[in-house]
Design goal:
Blueprint lengths: L2 H9 L9 H14 L3 E5 L1 H12 L2 H4 L5 E2 L2 H11 L5 E3 L2 E2 L6 E2 L1 H12 L1 H9 L4 E5 L14 H4 L9 E5 L2 E6 L1
Parallel strand pairs: 6-8
Antiparallel strand pairs: 1-6, 2-3, 3-7, 4-5, 7-8
Helix pairs in contact: 2-3, 6-7
Amino acid sequence: MDLGAIETIVKQGKTVITTEDAAIIDVAIKALEQGHTATFYLKDSLFTEIIRRRYATQERAIPVNMEPLSPEEAERIKKDFNIELDGFSTKEACLRCQSIYGTYEFIRQGIKEHGEEAVRAVFSLKHVSVLQTHPRQHIICQNCGLALTLARAVVVEPHSYLYRSENHGYACCR
């Protein structure tokens, strides 16, 4: 265990927890059920089990409204960002210009807000899966700049996604 890396994370105001797999699954499921915002860096088998338990029933999966990433969008992401993805995400139409906010726009906004290096680092992880629960997101239309999370009279759910590769997953769940 790299205690120096743990110390660095704790100095940044974060907490590191190590425990048995069942306890981590319970904590992640409770965060999802109770609306807590958290980011879990997990081995893939735990990530897979949490996603399975959360979305394994039709009652849970349908309201999420995630659609498969189209081959055209995956190709555009590969061409413009050199990131290979497969998976699912929600799509949101802009109230002003009707452009669609999907995976491409999510990555584009991520690069604007966090930098290309940070976005690439997350998508380059090979043996760590990332699960974000109830993130605080400000979805911004990448065409006209409208803040979609502020433009609606009702709350806009966070952009949800589930991307997979051989030994890695990246998901935002609610």
